[in-house]
Amino acid sequence: MSGFVEKPEPLQVPGLVxxxxxxxxELYQNEAGDLVMVASDRMSAFDWVLPTEIPDKGRVxxxxxxxxxxxxxxxxxxHVISTDVPDGAPDDWAGRTMVxxxxxxxxxxxxxxxxxxxxxxxxxxxxxxxxxxxxxEGLSDGSExxxxxxxxxxxxxxxxxxxxxSYEEVARQVGAETAAYLRQSTLAVYSLxxxxxxxxxIILADTKFEFGFDGDELIIADEVLTPDSSRFWPAAxxxxxxxxxxxxxxxxxDWLTSPAxxxxxxxxxxxxxxxxxxxxxxxxxxxxxxxxLTGTAWH
Length: 299
Hints:
Elements: E1 3-4, E2 17-21, E3 25-29, E4 35-39, E5 44-45, E6 48-49, H1 57-72, E7 80-82, E8 97-100, E9 104-105, E10 108-115, H2 118-127, E11 129-130, E12 133-134, E13 144-150, E14 153-154, E15 163-164, H3 167-174, H4 176-199, E16 202-214, E17 217-221, E18 230-234, H5 250-256, H6 276-294
Parallel strand pairs: 1-6
Antiparallel strand pairs: 2-3, 3-4, 4-8, 5-6, 7-8, 9-16, 10-13, 10-14, 10-16, 11-12, 14-15, 16-17, 16-18
């Protein structure tokens, strides 16, 4: 069992219909039929949405996504229409809201990996493959791959694991033409973003994208290249053969799996509230990632 420790009651806003509460985002539809995505400060780990929020997290995710969408627009379109806060919505929505095109979403998590870690490492250690792709011997945690690889996953409901699948399975589910476009676009966006991040002293180890159809055109949607959807490592301290320091929720994962939390991951009990020092350290990492990538101070 997993999911929300305490599922929030969605805010009702005049002129908006609430569609969905995700791990991080609330999704509404306005009278024009556009989607209104509002990023909360919720934090998820180990398929649980935790009872403690990370201040500013929703704004960091939204502002960083917008920064990346701008840099990727010559390569691929995106779903953003505006960042205007709808009339009647609370002031707190400023900076965390995107009004977006309503797309026909492709039910595939499009993952690009340039380095070996996480679920890819676990599979490699057993079979020397990731999502059915053969990799050379001698790689370890944090190794750079000979070339970036496309390792898709099926999208899971809140509280469930996304499952890695083969490219052939994606082609069966969405068709050969769409699968080829997803792979090509995922690797192209990853490669451009990796180079931009590298210039700023950050390794983009892996990342995931979501795509949807705007009419006949496949464009990129949801969030993009944030600490929630990507592994960012400081380039200066990169050293294969160990877990890398990262700009993400690692402080949260480390505390939850430590004796200090008193929580057993294998039990069906929900995780406890986070201590203030973990909240502050995690917020600092998210802000640091934003500042290093964009070159601007967080306000």
